[in-house]
Specification:
This protein is mostly beta strands. The chain has helices at about 10-15, 20, 50-55, and strands at about 5, 30-45, 55-70, 75-80, 85-95, 100-110, 135-145, 150-160, 170-175, 175-180, 180, 185-200, 205-220, 225-240, 240-255, 265-270, 270-275, 280-290, 295-310, 320-330, 330-340, 355, 365-375. The strands form three sheets. A 16-stranded antiparallel beta barrel has the order 2-3-4-5-6-7-8-12-13-14-15-18-19-20-21-23. This is Porin domain-containing protein.
Length: about 375
């Protein structure tokens, strides 16, 4: 395994234009520079090309990561490269104000939903496709962590890229044309709150929590503001290698001067799609981790359901189920996923949306294998 390279904090922070941190840097301490290379195999049972060729292998991502501290100041950043794009996943400076309080500033993770992930698979959970899992935006966040209690308070001025961009890692509101509908929406002025409590018990731990986010939707044509909100309750419990995750979300996008108030556009990873403007998102995940002589094997089933709650009665539920196993061995981590989608973006050939009227029929299926080497 390649050891992380050490740089002085002042040199790296200067390169990243974080002058407030570099002013504090001396020669001690440093930054860990690490990286990832991931290769993927994809097979789609609904694609004639995919079935005829037996699937395809390609580059998933190459990533470089920076993490480190100098005294009470530190930085964390990750930049990713794909076969046809590149983008920042997160990048922020932080200050440890006390043993319990940390202040983060920059492109930091939105504290909404289950801490960490509400999924086990490479495909992530249904909330990810709404920008409600592993999403980072531009702003400031305060984190309190003591005696099992964790409080997150964040304000995000806007998303990491412009509304017309679609290359970002996680979903943001999109400004552009999709299937003949023009959208002019941008995320603005979002407040996010999350409170969790972790209980230790024999054989594991259980984390209970609730989250709330409210924000504006700026129309860059009319210059009027709409609003949006989401609220969630969540549970993450582990017991002797078993893990159970439960989450329920109520959300609404109320875009100003919308052509169709029943839907909004989102974009990420060089694609854009439509979702129902109001609804509920449910997650139910179960996993079992088995230690091995070479590392561990985790097998799981992640299920997500989205139920639209709009004025258009033709809108339908969307579902996603992922059965898989993840194998950790030394510096490698490999995920074997069998994905089933019903009226779900990226998992069905005709239904390139979530919660809109279903075009296809039943469940479509695909296989995804992702091999990652971490150094």
């Amino acid at each position: 395994m390649i050891k992380p390279v050490k740089f002085t904090l002042s040199a790296l922070v200067t390169a990243l234009s974080l002058s407030s941190v570099s002013a504090q840097a001396e020669t001690e301490d440093g930054i860990d520079v690490t990286g990832t290379l991931r290769i993927k195999y994809a097979y789609k049972d609904y694609s004639a090309d995919s079935t005829a060729k037996g699937g395809e292998i390609g580059l998933d991502i190459a990533a470089i990561k920076f993490n480190g501290k100098k005294g009470d100041w530190g930085i964390s950043a990750e930049y990713r490269f794909t076969a046809d794009s590149h983008f920042i996943k997160h990048g922020y400076g932080y200050y440890d104000a006390s043993p319990a309080w940390q202040i983060q500033f920059g492109m930091t993770k939105n504290p909404f939903g289950n801490p960490g992930f509400i999924s086990n698979s490479f495909w992530l959970g249904m909330p990810y496709y709404f920008g409600m899992e592993d999403d980072s935006d531009m702003g400031i966040k305060a984190v309190y962590n003591k005696d099992g209690w964790q409080s997150d308070i964040a304000f995000f001025k806007n998303s990491e890229y412009a509304g017309s961009e679609n290359k970002q890692y996680a979903a943001d509101l999109y400004s552009g044309n999709i299937n003949g509908t023009d959208y002019s929406n941008e995320e603005s002025n979002q407040l996010s709150l999350r409170q969790t409590y972790t209980m230790q018990h024999q054989g594991g731990s259980t984390t209970l929590g609730g989250s709330l986010q409210i924000g504006q939707i700026y129309n860059n044509l009319s210059q009027n503001n709409g609003d949006r909100y989401a609220a969630a309750v969540h549970l993450d419990s582990s017991y002797h290698g078993w893990n159970l995750q439960l989450q329920a979300i109520q959300y609404e996008f109320n875009a100003a001067d919308s052509v169709d108030p029943n839907k909004v556009a989102l974009a990420f990873l060089s694609w854009q799609y439509e979702v129902a403007a109001k609804g509920q998102i449910y997650s139910l995940n179960i996993a079992k981790t088995i230690p091995t002589s070479f590392g561990s094997v985790k097998c799981y089933n992640d299920f997500g359901l989205m139920t639209p709650d709009v004025a258009d009665a033709s809108y339908d539920n969307s579902k996603q189920n992922v059965i898989g196993c993840a194998v950790a061995a030394g510096p490698t981590y490999t995920m074997f996923d069998f994905i089933m989608g019903n009226n779900m973006v990226f998992a069905t050939p005709l239904d390139d949306h979530i919660g809109l009227a279903q075009i296809g029929k039943g469940w479509d299926k695909r296989i995804n294998i992702n091999f990652g080497y971490y150094f």
